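Narrative of accomplishments. A recurring question from our advisory board has been how the design workflow behaves on a single, concrete structure rather than in aggregate. To address it, we present the structure tokens for one chain from the evaluation set, followed by the sequence designed for it. No filtering or post-editing was applied between the two.
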């Protein structure tokens, strides 16, 4: 039994507990902070992927240049 098996009653209970603990005034701030954190994580992950891709392309270009020099 994992998180995927919470169901609607479980989600309602979690929302009620969060409202009791943090209060309705604090929830938008928490949501905004969570959204910003996820956005930064996603952009960082994309930058890492782009950096790896550009490194691979540079290595391929260098290999092609070496092959061309060896043929000449």
């Amino acid at each position: 039994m994992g998180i995927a098996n919470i169901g609607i009653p479980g989600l309602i209970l979690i929302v009620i507990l969060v409202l009791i603990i943090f209060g309705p005034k604090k929830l938008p701030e928490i949501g905004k902070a969570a959204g910003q954190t996820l956005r930064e994580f996603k952009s960082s992950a994309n930058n890492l992927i782009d950096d790896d891709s550009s490194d691979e392309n540079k290595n391929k270009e260098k290999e092609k240049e070496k092959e061309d020099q060896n043929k000449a």
